[in-house]
Amino acid sequence: MRSLADFEFNKAPLCEGMILACEAIRRDFPSQDVYDELERLVSLAKEEISQLLPLEEQLEKLIALFYGDWGFKASRG
After folding, report:
1. Contact (CB, 8 A) for 4 and 21
2. For residue 77, what pLDDT band results from cuts at 50, 70 and 90?
3. Which pTM was predicted?
C-alpha cells in the first residue's frame, strides 16, 4: 500500500488522493473496483461526448452525465 504521508496531492489527480485516503481509513477498501468503475465511466463519457463539439459544450454534456445519468450528488456533512 502507498503511504499517505509521502503522497504528493498537488501533483496527482483528486481521485488518486481520495482512494489512497480511503485505503488508509479502511484496509478492505475496494480500490480496484473503484478504478474499474472510473475507467468504465470515462469510456462512457468518451462514447457520449463528441470531441468535435466546442469545449464548453463538452463540459456541459459531461456535467449532465455526471449529475443526471450517473446520479452523483453534492457532498453533505
Report:
1. yes
2. low
3. 0.77
